[in-house]
Each structure stands twice: as C-alpha cells, then as structure tokens.
UniProtKB/TrEMBL annotation:
Organism taxonomic ancestry: Bacteria, Pseudomonadati, Bacteroidota, Flavobacteriia, Flavobacteriales
The organism of origin for this protein: Flavobacterium aquicola
The organism's place on the tree of life at top rank: Bacteria
Protein name, entry field: Uncharacterized protein
Length: 232
C-alpha cells in the first residue's frame, strides 16, 4: 500500500512539473515576444503613404549596345520632371512631419512557429539545436500587446475590430497602413536563441514576409538576422 502511495506521489510530482514547465514555456515565449516586438515592428512595418509613393521618373534612361538598361542620366531631366520631383519631395516631407499615429492591424492570437523538423545551421548558430521541434498546434496564446510600448509613430489595433474581408477597401479616419502577423518563437535548448515568422500585408497584392533570428545579448533580446521568405 505504501509502495502504491509512493508511486502515485512520484507520478503526481512529475505530472505537476511537466504542466508547470509547459506553462513556463508559454510565459517565456510571451515575455520574449513582448520585449522584441517593438524592434520587429520597426524592422518590418512601413507607412503605406510613403511606401506606395515612389519618386517620379527623373532624367533619361540609357542603354548599352545590346539594349540593356545601364543607368539614368539625371542631367537630362525635363522641366516637368524637375517640378514633379520637387512636388514629390514636398509631399513626402509633409507625411514625415505628420505626428499622427500610423495604425497597424495586429492579430493577438499567436500560433507556434510552424516549420517542423527544420535544421538551422548558420554562422550565428554554429552549435545550435534549433531542429526537429515539432510544432504543437495546441500552444496558441493571446498576446497582451496593448501593454507594449512601441517606438516611433506606429500603433497596433486589434485586427478583430476591422472588417477582415474588406480591410483594404474601407476608408478610415486614421492612417491605416497594413496587417502585421507574427508567429510564436521557437527556441534552442538553452533558450538563448530563437526564430519566428513575421508577415506584413499592405494591400491585396502588397506584402512580404521574413524569417527573423533573435538572440539574447547582454540580457537583452536582439534581432541578429532577417531572411525574406515571400513577397507579393
């Protein structure tokens, strides 16, 4: 009887420890994502008013003998081109001086990093173990992003407050710039390095994604590498 009680006690201790570890894993994920999110936003999001407004044509395009483009001779710019460039610079300057917030729709539901059995061996992780970690679909969580202090002029707004089907067709009373989605972070065994997916959508056919590598440096989490994964 005592042996059965002892076995039951050990089982309960192990079960409690495993549950606690799982909770800590999620809380650690939340903590690190909360710390690194401002840097992710600064590195990923754009003001669509500037991003979708490239400088106008200016000068004459030059080609080589095979008809391949070589460069643009800006000394050949016409009077109209010179004026258009001045107007463009003025418009961009006004946008940059605008102190109103640029709103980014953000999905607070964070899903696990989905790359399964991925071996990551790059110079930044020479002895790393970011591999063969099966994505666990049950470990979604909600990020309390409203408590995160952001840099610059960006501001997050819950995507659930938008009409998702017509999000880019609607007219807003604020500067809406796009949708930001981030995955959970996959860590190495020492929890000193991590990787996550980030995507920014600025229109129906406008957007891009990045694989972001982070590392703990002097007790602070930093982005050390970004790799493009898709573009629209």
């Amino acid at each position: 009887m005592k042996k059965l009680q002892k076995t039951t006690f050990i089982f309960l201790v192990i079960l409690f420890a495993n549950c606690k570890k799982s909770d800590c894993d999620i809380e650690f994920n939340k903590h690190v994502l909360t710390e690194i999110l401002p840097s992710i936003i600064d590195s990923t999001c754009v003001d669509i008013r500037i991003f979708s407004n490239p400088p106008p044509p200016y000068g004459k395009m030059l080609f080589d003998k095979e008809g391949r483009f070589t460069k643009i001779d800006s000394t050949k710019a016409t009077a109209k081109e010179i004026q258009r460039l001045k107007d463009w610079k003025k418009d961009i300057a006004e946008i940059k001086k605008d102190t109103s917030k640029v709103i980014i729709a953000f999905d607070p539901k964070i899903s696990p990093y989905e790359k399964e059995y991925e071996l990551i061996v790059i110079k930044d992780f020479p002895n790393d173990t970011l591999k063969k970690l099966i994505a666990n679909k049950t470990k979604e969580y909600l990020l309390n992003y409203k408590s995160i202090r952001l840099n610059g002029k960006f501001m997050l707004k819950d995507i659930n407050e938008f009409d998702r089907e017509n999000i880019f067709e609607r007219k807003y009373k604020f500067n809406f710039s796009g949708i930001l989605r981030v995955s959970g972070i996959k860590f190495d065994k020492k929890c000193e390095s991590g990787i996550l997916d980030v995507g920014f959508t600025c229109g129906r056919l406008c957007g891009y994604g990045n694989k972001i590598f982070i590392k703990k440096v002097k007790n602070k989490w930093k982005i050390i590498k970004m790799e493009g994964t898709w573009m629209s």
